[in-house]
């Protein structure tokens, strides 16, 4: 469930485009996804579309998950310390207050750093 009590949107691996909402969702489910278990989709009614093996773009389910994990880890690495801050907040559910105390900064600073981290993680690669 999301913070507002509504059922959180579930994404299929093929739908991941690393938008802000998707990156936050991926971080919230990162441990489960890293273990190769895609978050349950029962509340949303999502079911996997049939796989058309004739297309050139077919990827195995596990291959998609591995690619998503690797790409997200690369994004976290690129952001550096603030990437770890985002993991601490979204994945480990450590409060902003606790993070601020541990880092000896204000809660406002933590919010700014989290926003910046997510912004960097959602940037498209320059061609």
3D structure, described in words:
By secondary structure, the chain is mainly alpha-helical. The chain has one domain (13-44, 61-121). Helix content is 53%, strand content 0%. The chain is built from 6 helices and no strands. The protein has helices at residues 20-28, 30-34, 61-79, 81-91, 96-103, 107-121. Helix 1 crosses helix 4, helix 3 crosses helix 4 (81-91) and helix 5 packs across helix 6 (107-121). The relative contact order is 0.14. Residues 42-46 and 50-56 have low confidence and may be disordered.
- Structural class of the secondary structure composition? mainly alpha
How many helical stretches?
6
Strand content range: under 5%
* Helical fraction: 40-55%
* Mean of pLDDT: 83
Radius of gyration: 16 Å
Give the count of structural domains.
1
SSE diagram, text form:
Layout: H1 20-28, H2 30-34, H3 61-79, H4 81-91, H5 96-103, H6 107-121
Spell out the key features of this protein.
127 residues; mainly alpha; 6 helices; RNA polymerase sigma factor 70 region 4 type 2 domain-containing protein
Provide a brief overview of the structure.
This is RNA polymerase sigma factor 70 region 4 type 2 domain-containing protein. By secondary structure, the chain is mainly α.
């Amino acid at each position: 469930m999301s913070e507002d009590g509504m059922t959180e949107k579930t994404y299929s691996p093929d739908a991941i485009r690393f938008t802000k909402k998707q990156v936050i969702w991926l971080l919230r489910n990162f441990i489960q996804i890293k273990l190769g278990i895609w978050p349950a989709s029962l509340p949303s009614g999502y079911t996997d579309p049939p796989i058309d093996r004739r297309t050139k773009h077919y990827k195995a389910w596990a291959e998609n998950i591995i690619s998503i994990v690797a790409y997200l880890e690369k994004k976290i690495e690129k952001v550096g310390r603030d990437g770890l801050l985002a993991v601490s907040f979204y994945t480990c559910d450590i409060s902003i207050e606790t993070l601020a105390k541990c880092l000896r900064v204000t809660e406002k600073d933590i919010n700014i750093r989290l926003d910046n981290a997510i912004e960097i993680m959602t940037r498209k690669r320059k061609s």
